Amino acid sequence: MTTYKNIKGIEIKYLSADPPAPNAGQVWYNSTTKVVKGAINGVGAWASGGNLSTARGSGSSIGIQDASLFVGGENPLTTPSVFALNESYNGTSWTELADLNTARQGAVGSGTQTAGIVAGGTTPSRLEVESWNGSSWSEVNELNVGRKNAHSFLGGLQTASLFISGVTNPPSTTSAAVESYNGTSWTEIADVNTSRRQFAGAGTQTSALISGGGATTNVESWNSTSWTETTELNTAREETGGAGSSNTNALVFGGQDGLTITELWNGSTWTEVADMATGKNNKGGTGSNTAALAIGGQPGATTATEEWTIPSFTTKTFDTD
Questions:
Q1: Are 75 and 213 within one domain?
Q2: Closest by Cα among 82, 67, 162 to 122
Q3: What's 257's DSSP letter?
Q4: pLDDT higher for 33 or 191?
Q5: What count of other Cβ atoms lies within 10 Å of the Cβ of residue 133?
Q6: pLDDT at 192 over 60
Q7: Between these two residues, 273 and 30, which has the higher pLDDT value?
Q8: 318 in any annotated domain
Q9: pLDDT per residue over 15-38, tens digit each?
Q10: Most buried residue, 89, 184, 200, 260, by most Cβ within 10 Å?
């Protein structure tokens, strides 16, 4: 008689219950339910998170999915329309903390929930940078080139970050400039190949990815020395949210005109995955490509937060007929 072992070269374990954390590819027989099951790679999905206290978009996102900050931002329907607000997320709800010294929107953020920085944005000169110590904000050394609407993920560490491209003022034009921060000062390094605004970013000071912007599909990868154009997005977009920990894993979501499309990067290709529930542009984005946050958004500013998760495995029942 042909058995699974004869066909696949492995035995099926006989278990009374599903294992709590099987490895992808593992197969077993559940004697209680009398079915053959297996573990396959997890499939990502968006779920509702806790709402912001104040509706807004174009804020700065800092941290990870269950320990993050959303700082500044804008709601064109209110007066004032630009905020200095600072809200902290614990994976369930948002809490207001100490405000920025200077209200801003279109700035970029980096670091952790207790040690972050916010740089640029619609401050008087677009040069201003503030540092967060977990309880208050302090002004620190300014950028060399003042900009706003750069990417949504600055680099991951308060003392090791990048500020990439964005819009200068004056004149109001996109800049290809890239600056590196060491915790004290900013240094200009290699420019991007294509200047852009309102794009998605992922990674660190030494391994980064920038995607879209200016309603394009253009993607560039950073290896700590130079920028290289790589595989383009499937859908052209700007005003996006983004997340990811290096130039080989990233998530891009949302975009202009209320796009809900989400794309996942594995280092060589982009794959469309589950859509977002709320179609808003200028969302905040932070976290990894397997555990990300999409925060707020415009127009008609929202308080909505969505959580993206890819489980390590999904259980599949096999047809044994």
A1: yes
A2: 82
A3: G
A4: 191
A5: 12
A6: yes
A7: 273
A8: no
A9: 898 887 676 677 888 888 888 877
A10: 200
In 150-190, beta strands by DSSP E: 161-164, 178-181, 186-189
Q: How would you write 100-149 as a 3-class SS string? A: CCCCCCCCEEEECCCCEEEECCCCCCCCCEEEECCCCEEEECCCCCCCEC
Quick check: is 189 in a domain? yes
Same domain, 125 and 217: yes
Residue 36 sits in which domain range?
Answer: 4-40
Can you tell me the distance from the alpha carbon of 175 to that of 149, in angstroms, rounded to the nearest whole number? 11
53 and 36 assigned to the same domain: no
Query: How do residues 276-289 score in pLDDT, each as one tens digit?
Result: 998 899 999 999 99
| Whole-prediction pTM | 0.88
User: What strand order describes the sheet that includes 116-119?
Assistant: 108-111, 116-119, 129-132, 137-140
Sign of the C-alpha dihedral, residues 317, 318, 320, 321?
Answer: positive
Q: Residue 321 falls within a domain, yes or no?
A: no
Element (H or E) spanning 275, and its range? none
- Asked whether residue 232 is domain-assigned, the answer is yes
Task: Determine how β-strand 305-309 pairs with β-strand 45-48.
Answer: antiparallel
Q: What does the block give as tokens for 155? A: 């680099």
CATH number, domain containing residue 238? 2.120.10.80
pLDDT, tens only, 253-271: 999 999 999 999 999 999 9
Helix (H, G, I), strand (E, B) or coil at 196: coil
Domains of the chain: total? 2
CA distances (Å), origin 293, targets 127, 146, 305 = 27, 27, 7
Structure-model confidence comparison of residues 159 and 39, the more confident one: 159
